[in-house]
Amino acid sequence: MDNGKKVLSLHAHPDDAEFMCVGTQALLRQKGWQVHIATMASGDCGSTQYSREQVSRIREAEAAKSAGLLQGEYHCLKCNDVFILYDRVTLLKTIELLRKVRPTLVIGPSPSDYMVDHEITSRLVQTACFACGMPNIEIEGVEPFEPVPYLYYVDPLEGKDNLGTEIKPTTVVDITSVIEIKKKMLCCHESQRNWLLEHHGMDEYVLSMKSFARNRGTQVGCDYAEG
């Protein structure tokens, strides 16, 4: 079933969407939406075992496998971890992606989060949504489109901004019925288990994801939710 609508989640790194918003995308897929998952970077610094080139290949393959569980498509804009910049080149690449996908709805990172890559991506997404219909921004091979996509921002990690202040979401989605597919999608990123353990002290990253989703769910009276 395809109703012609498209949802694009555009985040900084592979597995960001799986932590924060693929439950919402799974629900939209059930209603006939096309699913696209994109990242600015390939996660080339997310390893203590592999070179940048090796881990990029591994993580892009994991991200594509995850998107495939929703019959979706994965896109990578090939930036480098920690060097996602708000500049002309990167912004044009972001606008180009939106014009290729032509999403109805875009889900981006929180404007205030623990990592600057996430915050810069949030600004890039905001401007790209605003500019994707401007005909005077010319990009070869893609045409401007309207209307401007709806734009929603996900929770910051653990629901706290870059100063540790708790953020209350304005929209919360009950994802109880799709928590298992969210889990399966996150598990596609198996290369990250050792990295998250060594760098963030996060041993069971699936349990961490479910714990945060459970906390959001408790706030609105369901088992699991995304904000």
Automatic annotation (TrEMBL):
One Pfam short name: PIG-L
GO molecular function: hydrolase activity, acting on carbon-nitrogen (but not peptide) bonds, in linear amides
SUPFAM superfamilies for the chain: LmbE-like
PANTHER family in alphabetical order: N-ACETYLGLUCOSAMINYL-PHOSPHATIDYLINOSITOL DE-N-ACETYLASE, N-ACETYLGLUCOSAMINYL-PHOSPHATIDYLINOSITOL DE-N-ACETYLASE-RELATED
Protein name stated in the entry: LmbE family protein
Organism: marine sediment metagenome
